[in-house]
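Researcher: Next sequence.
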Amino acid sequence: MNTLRQAVQEYLSLRRSLGFKLQDAGKGLIDFVTFMERHRTSHITQALALAWAQQPVNVQPAQWAQRLSFVRGFARHRSATDPRTQIPPQGLLPFQPKRARPYLYSDDEIRSLLRAALDMPCRCELSKLRPWTYHCLFGLLSVSGLRLGEARSLELQDLDLKAAVLTIRSAKFGKSRLVPLHASTCKVLADYLARRKRHWAAREAPPICSFPTGAIVWMAERFIELSMPCPGRSVCVAYPTITAHVCMT
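Model: Next structure:
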């Protein structure tokens, strides 16, 4: 029988081959195996799984439940080859997540947000493109249904303005898909790309809607700041998901 560490690697490889990324689960399970090795235990027990899940004492109960769910999934897999394995039951760390209540922006509110993006101050020469980047990003999210990470990862070769199609690569479960674009959206994108080309000139350009490292939180803060004039904005939490649809004009 292989060790827990070998079994974790096999489990992660199997799940990732099916399209699951398991970034947090992968790190968590490696840490769990290290915890088990310190306790000199070769099989999963409910008591040790619970003890590991509750190790961070200064976090929300949701994180404890998530950590235990990592072990639960692995334990189900491990039980097929090691009958000593104890699978933590579902109700061991009960937690009912509180989902954020979405706010649907109207067409007028989205237009107001896009105008506010263009009014952002530029502190230096390198930041002169940034208002146009936010304008392009928020507008593209509003008309395309892209996820934030997908929009931020777009490369020039992913955009076909003649065919009015975006290619989204390595999306959920590692798949790719095509997203049709309205003619008005193509017009705005073409204008932005021309500005972007002039801005970067001889320098190497980043992805189409690229931001500095750690900018997702900063982007969320700017989104909240820009959307302050919109009624009902207070129910929006952390990351922007614009679900209303409006042409980028």
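Model: The chain has a mean pLDDT of 79. The chain has nine helices and three strands.
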